[in-house]
Design a protein that fits this description.
7 helices; Yip1-like protein; transmembrane; membrane
């Protein structure tokens, strides 16, 4: 597949309308490992830049801290998601590989950047739509993630995968809260 605007646009549309097929297509491309990591890095950079634009448009002063810190934070979140999708899926009998998980999660983040751009446009022209677009983005994210995990690991039940995602998010949030508390970084800490 040539990496041109038409092909990328077609794959974004396929991801939004038939995410399991898009995931299978991405896995079937057998992208070289260095290109997978390059895509991961590009998505992180775009996330940080678009995030900065969003914050500035909302009248904030920008990121608290440096762009480098935000890039490291975004990298940690996305890489954590790759590890979680890979590890939890494999623990539950899935057959996905780390390189395929990497490309799928990077692509999913790229598609979510499209939603973020729509949010930015709504802030400029129809601010009242921002909340609705945010809600739609969350619904599409969960739907695409569920289908990507099914394609990656060979799972057949969307309900079980969705419930697994919800439980995994809660478990990771609890673990993160405990770790942050142990480090003295709890919100509103005493």
């Amino acid at each position: 597949m040539n990496l041109n605007a038409a092909n990328v646009g077609a794959l974004v549309r396929l991801t939004i309308t038939r995410p399991r097929e898009a995931a299978a297509q991405l896995i079937g491309m057998n992208i070289p490992d260095d290109a997978r990591w390059l895509g991961f890095v590009i998505v992180v950079v775009l996330s940080v830049l678009i995030g900065q634009v969003s914050v500035l448009l909302m009248g904030e002063e920008g990121f608290q801290g440096s762009m480098l810190f935000m890039a490291m934070f975004q990298t940690s979140i996305l890489l954590g998601m790759v590890v979680a999708v890979q590890g939890i899926g494999r623990a539950l009998g899935g057959g996905g590989t780390f390189p395929d998980t990497l490309v799928l999660m990077a692509w999913l983040q790229f598609v979510m950047l499209v939603f973020q751009l729509v949010q930015i446009v709504s802030l400029l022209f129809i601010p009242a739509m921002f909340g609705l677009i945010t809600l739609a983005a969350l619904v599409f994210f969960m739907w695409m993630l569920t289908n990507f995990i099914m394609a990656l690991h060979g799972f057949t039940s969307p309900t079980k995968v969705f419930v697994g995602i919800i439980f995994s998010f809660f478990a990771m949030a609890v673990i993160l809260a405990i770790l942050l508390g142990m480090m003295g970084l709890a919100p509103g800490g005493v």
